[in-house]
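hiii, so i know i said id send this last week but things got crazy w the move. better late than never?? heres the sequnce for the chain we talked about at the cafe, plus the structure i predicted for it. fair warning i was half asleep when i ran it
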Amino acid sequence: MRHERQVELLKRVQHSGQRLAGLHADASRTNTTTSYSDPKQFAKEMKHLFRKGPIFFGLSADLTETGSYRALRVDGLPLVVVRKEDGTLDAFVNACRHRGAPLVETSSTGEGLNAFTCPYHSWTYSLDGTLRSRPLSAGAFDDVEMNCDLLRRPVAEKYGLIFVRPEGDAPIDVDETLGGAQDDLSSFDIGSYVHIETRTNEWDMNWKLFFDTFSESYHIRTLHKNSLAPNFNSDCVIFDAFGKNLLSVGLRSNVADEFEKPESEWSLLPYGTIQYFLVPNALVCHQLDHLEVWIVEPLSAGRTRTHTAVYAPSAPATQKEHDYFVKNLDMLLAVTGQEDFTLMAEIQQSMASGGLNEVVYGRIEPPLIHFHTQIDLALANAE
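okay and structure toks below
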């Protein structure tokens, strides 16, 4: 992150007053609990936020070599992105044009792919999606007039980030998609990071609860009193809006120590968990010496799959260095899995029970206010 930008954010903290009240939002808001539990609401979100996209699909670090690929489902739609021989990416519907079988596992990553080969009847496609062969068919498909190449989807790569449009043919403008966050994100040189490990889990919670618990620090003093609370501030986060996206910076409890230095020496990085929420489906988090990336895959109104990855700024030179980054992933998943997401599952049950009509996002939680306001706007504008 540019030094000028770090100073700008730290000055907000410096001048925010007691308990960081100056970082609060202008006004609180409420939301209906059906927003988290109603299948009709969920279907609208999938159609207008996820299907139409664009959605975040991963980092360039996930697809470094020719034949490396990543497959995910978006609202049930199977997609795959592959790195071609010329170094560019292609995105396809991950389904054979013969009978619809997935060409690679529908939630997977891999490398060394020379072609897509269907596991059902061995129809084979080049990495650019062109149908290469229909083995042993003896010409039985020669009278089929339909183009049987793989169905292509728009894909774009910039700043080390990859985006795909699951439905439709409109090209993707990454800068427009990021809404201004590109100035920050490009400064982290994300394209140079190295993938260490990804883990996938499922939780009994609405996809929005993932963002709710990550985007504010208000809960740290209580929910994380035995884990994070001793080292982290729980008064408020630094918040910035980037179109529908947002920045939420959680602060360490000793951040004020930086203000004793000359401004030319200020650095936010040792004191901030710098989180970029790429709505609707991703969180890119810069920690001091690594990146953590979450991709959220909604399965139903009350069920969500998460893909959690850790990345190093360069390839680890030793096994000990590699294990250090894995340990960070272990700790991240332990805290979120044992504290955040288990509670989110309980909250989901309360939402779905009908006993609670509304929830509150207070001025102390500015990212939540922005996030849910943007969702409401997107759905209202789509109707």
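btw The chain has a mean pLDDT of 95. thought thatd interest u
miss u guys!!
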